[in-house]
Amino acid sequence: MRNYNFCSGPAALPEPVLRQAQEELLDWRGMGASVMEVSHRSAEFDAVAKQAEADLRELMAIPANYKVLFLHGGASHQFGMVPLNLLGGAKTSCDILDTGIWSEKAVAEAKRYGGVNTVKALVQRDGLFAISEPASWKLDSNAAYVHYTPNETIGGVEYHFIPETGGVPLVADMSSNILSRPIDIEKFGLIYAGAQKNIGPSGLTVVVVREDLLDQALPFIPSMYRYKTHAEHGSLVNTAPTFAWYLAGLVFQWLKAEGGVAALGERNARKAQKLYDYIDASGFYSNPIHPSCRSRMNIPFRLADESLNKAFLVESEAAGLMALAGHRSVGGMRASIYNAMPEAGVDALIDFMREFARVNG
Question: Which residues are tagged catalytic?
Answer without folding.
Answer: 102, 173, 197
